[in-house]
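User: Predict the structure for this protein chain, please.
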Amino acid sequence: MAHDCKDCEGTRRFGLTRRDALRGTLGGFLGFAMARQTELFGAAMPDLLLPQDTTTRAAKSVIVVWLAGGPATIDMWDPKEGRENGGPTQAIDTSVKGIQYADNMPTIAKVAEHVGVIRSMVSREGSHERGRYLLHTGYIPTGTVSHPSMGSITALELGNKKLDLPNFISLGGSTDGAGFLPPEFNPFVVDAGGARRPGADNKKDAGAGDKVKIANIDYPAGVDKNRFRERMKFLQEQEADFEKEHASDEVTKHKTAYEKADRLMHTPLLESFDLSKEKPELTKAYGEGKFGRSCMLARRLVERGVAFVEITLGGWDTHQDNFTKVSSNCKQLDPGLGTLIKDLHDRRMLDKTLVVCMGEFGRTPKINQNTGRDHYPRAWSAMLAGGGIQGGRVIGATDKDGVEVKERPVTVPDLFATIYTAVGVDPRKKNVSPLGRPIALSDNGVAVKELLT
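Assistant: Here is the predicted structure, written as structure tokens:
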């Protein structure tokens, strides 16, 4: 019987719907332009902050590749060739002696010296919604508090407040946001668009398909720069008059919102979104589809100082026809992610950029009657590379059939503690919710020291 998982996030390819675009873009745009955290909540309470000299900052930016739907990591990072549970997936050698990945990952296998794989991830959350929340915030959903996502925390901790671009950008779909943090730490959602036109290998041939469109960034119809400036001047005069009689923090926040939005609309850094400036051979290596473009754009964004970029690639909810779908998905994932790692290294940016690839859980080692794999949080893998991470390593192990973790189990809070430590942020640091509850960045997680430099 065909699987009918109406709640499965992986049942669509995670392109932007109209609702996603409005919610993500407008929310991120206005959130980026809101007042500073200390103006709203007082940020983290000073007496609850642990000393920051307990960690050494390595990475300055984080790129997360989010595999929506729950990827079959047994067919990616932890192959079981020759076992019934392994199916047709074969193991291939990597650039590191003794380490093998699945044959779906040939490009990443060539840069394995920069990659650390955790093959012993464990969780109890096997539903898409709860798993997604856990892997974005580090906490199980409780309903009593909306936890900030990793992207929002990273934007808060690493973000440059003077940067005209948002410090948290989501490419390819909406994602978890600021939670109880101020809305300026919500994601700014951008759709990287479709593939480049065939043969678009120079400025003459490269058209609008090479320029990523940002919603709500252009002037309205019939408004040019001069008219826009006149409107902004009029708005400032009105606000000044209003402030004389109604001076408050809310007025200041409103002014700050418009000022930041104005800066974003006119910053020269918007050229980051013009992919036509990249060499054709590099564009081809990344892959000319949406995911490849997103990976290239992510590199361009962190190159210009953006603290956190999340790239979404959907389609991993493989209850049916797992091996065909995983193979197809990896034809996008492998060249895009592998080239991203190599490109960052070639530009001497990898030491300062942490790259993470993960989904909400793994999938069953046992192959079901539809040649698929079902949800399986008990044993799965996550990948890390770059800043603060020791490459060429595999942490933990599953048994010969991939059913149980037999060595070095790593929890999701442990993963979050590792990521925060790699970027120089103490995972025990606490922010205070609006209800006055101190909440640590990691839910009692312990960093995987074997992965850290």
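The CA atoms of residues 68 and 275 lie 25 Å apart.
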